[in-house]
Amino acid sequence: MALTRQAFVGTFIHSKTKAELEYAHETVLLIDENGIIAKKGPAKDLSALITSLGWDESSVNVTRSPPGGFFFPGFIDTHIHASQYPNAGIFGKSTLLAWLKKYTFPLESSLKDLARAQRVYTACVKRTLAHGTTTAAYYATIDVDATNLLAKLCFDLGQRALVGRVCMDRPDLCPDFYRDESAEEGLQNTKACIEYIQQLKGNGDDALVRPILTPRFAPSCTSDSMRGLGALAREKDLHVQTHISENKGEVELVKELFPGYEDYTDVYDQHDLLTPRTILAHGIHLSEREARAIAARQSKVAHCPCSNSSLSSGTARIRWLWRHGVDVGLGTDVSGGYSPSVLEAARQAALVSRHVCMSTEDDEDKLSVEEVLYLATRGGAQCVGLEGKVGAFEEGMAWDAQLVQFRNVPEGEEEEIGDGGNVDVFGWEDWEEKMAKWVYSGDDRNTARVWVRGRLVHSRG
Ligand code: GUN
Ligand code: FE
């Protein structure tokens, strides 16, 4: 359905490079009826820019950023389990393998009840939109109908998404109550989800919701199932997501289960699962060889710092991955991660990088505010195959954006402090300082509005 043409006026901030944010003040972006940025220019030329596109000024809806507020690209969550949303924050002192057994498999299995799935998935999609997540790479469960329901909800609520039915068929490592009966059954069920997702109305080359092949991780999959998924990925040029090298016990287990392979990365590689469209979550304990192999295949890494600290999995070395040429995005990894907020993931990425630095004693290992915001936007876009389409404000890209707003502390005592969360802005901060305040103490109260492909999908209050 065609949208009204729109003009956004004010301050626009996005990543120019990994290390640098670009600030465009007094600027206008014109958005066409398909939600694409058609023109960018000085705000004073608004009328002339509208005319240059052959548009009628009266047909354009104008939105201005408030003083001190700004437009920022929508966040991209490259790794989130929508099915685990009710467990966010619940993990005790457990580590990965025990956590899966105790908390995760029972919850995921319970979502075969579609009413329950509807409740959980609706809450998850709405909550992530409210946090500014305009694109998410979701794991659902093994259930076909519930997975399709998640895809339909993303489509209806307007969130860009990759949605994957979880594949897990190893009888010795998956519980009887939650497992594909066979590799063949898993593959057939996966194909059913792909077919459903690809027919969602309005889908085309730039489909809002796309399928993603989702072998849970090597320890829960048979070779047959991974080989089948690898072949399908190649045949249909599909996205792939899985977990890798998250926990030392898991790495040891993969060695035992897959003797004859060089390492964890080689297991996926030999099953044709390492492609430029593959998102590997975690990658904490990778060797030099593995980082080189992942870079050579152009596969991506989803860095999930909240999860890695919560499950005491370890500290991922993002600078090290970047130096090897690996593209990295951020994942909330709900519910290994306790928060559905990509801003929280960005903050934790900055903090985890400081822990890396405390052990390497190399200051270079610290990530800056600019770098974690790059991970949350442009880095994420590379992971989900949308580089050049979302993650920044350039002509030809989609208007996937959030309006960020702070509490401006007034000069006169009798005035009220305005809305906008717990980030107090006094007016004397420069823009770099404002961004630092947002990253380190902002939350969803600062996210006033959210758009995906030009459509308003969240409005606060
Ligand atoms: N490895 C296999 N499954 C999972 C999962 O659900 N979450 C995390 N964090 N790691 C996994
Ligand atoms: Fe995960």
From TrEMBL:
<feature type="domain" description="Amidohydrolase-related">
    <location>
        <begin position="72"/>
        <end position="457"/>
    </location>
</feature>
<dbReference type="InterPro" id="IPR014311">
    <property type="entry name" value="Guanine_deaminase"/>
</dbReference>
<keyword id="KW-0378">Hydrolase</keyword>
<dbReference type="InterPro" id="IPR051607">
    <property type="entry name" value="Metallo-dep_hydrolases"/>
</dbReference>
<dbReference type="InterPro" id="IPR032466">
    <property type="entry name" value="Metal_Hydrolase"/>
</dbReference>
<keyword id="KW-0862">Zinc</keyword>
<keyword id="KW-0479">Metal-binding</keyword>
<dbReference type="Pfam" id="PF01979">
    <property type="entry name" value="Amidohydro_1"/>
</dbReference>
<dbReference type="GO" id="GO:0006147">
    <property type="term" value="P:guanine catabolic process"/>
</dbReference>
<comment type="function">
    <text>Catalyzes the hydrolytic deamination of guanine, producing xanthine and ammonia.</text>
</comment>
<dbReference type="InterPro" id="IPR011059">
    <property type="entry name" value="Metal-dep_hydrolase_composite"/>
</dbReference>
<dbReference type="GO" id="GO:0008270">
    <property type="term" value="F:zinc ion binding"/>
</dbReference>
<comment type="subunit">
    <text>Homodimer.</text>
</comment>
<comment type="pathway">
    <text>Purine metabolism; guanine degradation; xanthine from guanine: step 1/1.</text>
</comment>
<comment type="similarity">
    <text>Belongs to the metallo-dependent hydrolases superfamily. ATZ/TRZ family.</text>
</comment>
<dbReference type="GO" id="GO:0005829">
    <property type="term" value="C:cytosol"/>
</dbReference>
<keyword id="KW-0597">Phosphoprotein</keyword>
<protein>
    <recommendedName>
        <fullName>Guanine deaminase</fullName>
        <ecNumber>3.5.4.3</ecNumber>
    </recommendedName>
</protein>
<dbReference type="InterPro" id="IPR006680">
    <property type="entry name" value="Amidohydro-rel"/>
</dbReference>
<dbReference type="GO" id="GO:0008892">
    <property type="term" value="F:guanine deaminase activity"/>
</dbReference>
